[in-house]
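Task 17 of the worksheet. Students: predict the tertiary structure of the chain below and write it out as structure tokens. Keep your answer in the requested format; marks are given for formatting as well as content.
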Amino acid sequence: MSKFKSGFVSIIGKTNVGKSTLLNNLVGEKIAITTPKTQTTRKAIKAIVNRENSQIIFIDTPGIHSPKNKLGQTMIETAWKTIPDVDILLYIIDTTSKEIRKEDTIILNKLREKNKKTILIINKIDLVKKESLLKIIDTYKEKYDFSAIIPVSALKHENLQIILDEIEKNLPEGPAYYDKEELTDQTERQLIEEIIREKALKLLNEEIPHGIYVELQKMKKRKTAQNEKIYDITVTIYCIRESHKGIIIGKNGAMLKKIGMYAREDIERMLNTKVNLKLWVKVKENWQDITSIVNEFRLK
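Model answer:
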């Protein structure tokens, strides 16, 4: 009989290479928010995959980028801090970048410095021809001695089981760290905040989303007059400029209503109950450089 294995696997890579999409599809549930915009992931998020002979704890990290404020610097520090304590690294690149760029050079240098067991995942293989893919594989083979190189399409669920098999093969023997029912270490409150931020990221234009953060103020369960369960949830969306506040709210409140409508659908699905969601928008200038706020995004 095979002995049980367990361990921690950190997912690292540049912004927008599909780390969160890959994580969600490996777990089989939506754990991390996903948008086409860069720097969507701000915190290290744990997600658990339970298999017959193993438990894999993934850590999704913020994408490596050039930071412009304290928040950006904290996000980079968070990604690097996960490396020493994990058993395996999944380094994600995608096929849209045909050459090794600045951020990937930084990551490769960090891999050499830490000398961790690393699996290279080449995502978005559905976007290129085989010849281009082979060139990318050869380019990265020369740069680091990877435990394995696995081409995948996270969006189309292609080769994802191969990733899990390869990870399990390289994990040490160990106990299950989490109950089999657990899929993430995030609380309901954190998941709700992230759902609302995801809808804002998807609906707002390019400049504004990176200047917002979401804070759940109140979450209370009650019963309606018809004796149905319902949650009253109050949330504040903070932005950095008064002009941004007007755009988030929209003409006659249309944009804020749209954000709330889409968010409420996901929250009700997650909580399996009705939700009364109230959204407020406030300006907090330069919050990305306020230490007390930025510390909330640090690796705990």
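Marker's comment: Strands lie at 5-13, 45-51, 54-60, 88-94, 118-123, 148-151, 213-223, 229-239, 274-283. The CA atoms of residues 5 and 171 lie 6 Å apart.
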